[in-house]
From TrEMBL:
<dbReference type="InterPro" id="IPR005126">
    <property type="entry name" value="NapC/NirT_cyt_c_N"/>
</dbReference>
<dbReference type="GO" id="GO:0019333">
    <property type="term" value="P:denitrification pathway"/>
</dbReference>
<feature type="binding site" description="covalent">
    <location>
        <position position="55"/>
    </location>
    <ligand>
        <name>heme 1</name>
    </ligand>
</feature>
<feature type="binding site" description="covalent">
    <location>
        <position position="176"/>
    </location>
    <ligand>
        <name>heme 4</name>
    </ligand>
</feature>
<dbReference type="GO" id="GO:0009055">
    <property type="term" value="F:electron transfer activity"/>
</dbReference>
<keyword id="KW-0813">Transport</keyword>
<feature type="binding site" description="axial binding residue">
    <location>
        <position position="177"/>
    </location>
    <ligand>
        <name>heme 4</name>
    </ligand>
</feature>
<keyword id="KW-0812">Transmembrane</keyword>
<dbReference type="GO" id="GO:0005886">
    <property type="term" value="C:plasma membrane"/>
</dbReference>
<keyword id="KW-0408">Iron</keyword>
<feature type="binding site" description="covalent">
    <location>
        <position position="140"/>
    </location>
    <ligand>
        <name>heme 3</name>
    </ligand>
</feature>
<keyword id="KW-0349">Heme</keyword>
<feature type="binding site" description="covalent">
    <location>
        <position position="143"/>
    </location>
    <ligand>
        <name>heme 3</name>
    </ligand>
</feature>
<protein>
    <recommendedName>
        <fullName>Cytochrome c-type protein</fullName>
    </recommendedName>
</protein>
<dbReference type="InterPro" id="IPR051174">
    <property type="entry name" value="Cytochrome_c-type_ET"/>
</dbReference>
<dbReference type="GO" id="GO:0009061">
    <property type="term" value="P:anaerobic respiration"/>
</dbReference>
<feature type="binding site" description="axial binding residue">
    <location>
        <position position="144"/>
    </location>
    <ligand>
        <name>heme 3</name>
    </ligand>
</feature>
């Protein structure tokens, strides 16, 4: 067995001796496509609701079920990644790297129970609100387009806020819509509450 590994390692270390440059280039290209396909498929699997629910079933997933984002008259439903993962590739990869801390927290047990999760809820919510504020609530805007809002069908308060603060850019969606899909943490000390 060891001799076989040694033989193939020798071939890999000096490939030009056995394979043409064209074969190596084509092989590298095919291996790159396979790697990219597997990587992208793995990333997309982490954007599915079953993946998210595998850790969040007993806390935030139950909360969203009673909201307009889960069930509504049109049948259009948002899943976790629609709000928590940017759609363009580079921002998505950056968010996935940030989310690895959340996966680590789950694996190590820091947020593995409802009580532990609730103890860290404000910290996690503030981090998410900050992220959404920095990107001008991009995930909200992927579905909700300001230019298509019908202010006549909104409440007077919503119409006033949308046509002023949202229109002039002084506020973004998350400034007013904290808790739109999840139960708010203890908000004492949070601006506006």
């Amino acid at each position: 067995m060891w001799q076989w590994i040694k033989k193939w390692w020798g071939i890999i270390r000096s490939p030009a001796k056995y394979f043409s440059l064209g074969f190596l280039t084509l092989g590298g290209f095919i291996a790159g496509i396979i790697f990219w396909g597997a990587f992208n498929t793995g990333m997309e699997l982490t954007n599915t609701e079953p993946f998210c629910v595998s850790c969040h079933e007993n806390n935030v997933y139950q909360e969203i079920q009673g909201t307009i984002h889960f069930t509504n008259r049109t049948g259009v439903r948002a899943i976790c990644s629609d709000c928590h993962v940017p759609h363009n590739w580079t921002d998505k990869m950056a968010r996935k790297m940030q989310a690895s801390k959340e996966v680590w927290a789950w694996i190590t047990g820091a947020i593995s129970t409802k009580e532990k999760f609730d103890a860290r809820r404000l910290h996690m919510a503030e981090r998410e609100w900050t992220r959404m504020k920095k990107n001008d609530s991009l995930e909200c805007r992927n579905c909700h387009e300001f230019s298509y809002m019908d202010f006549t069908r909104q409440s007077s308060r919503a119409s006033t806020q949308h046509s002023s603060s949202l229109a002039d850019g002084s506020k973004t969606c998350i400034d007013c819509h904290k808790g739109i899909a999840h139960r708010l943490p203890n908000m004492s000390g949070v601006e506006g509450f």
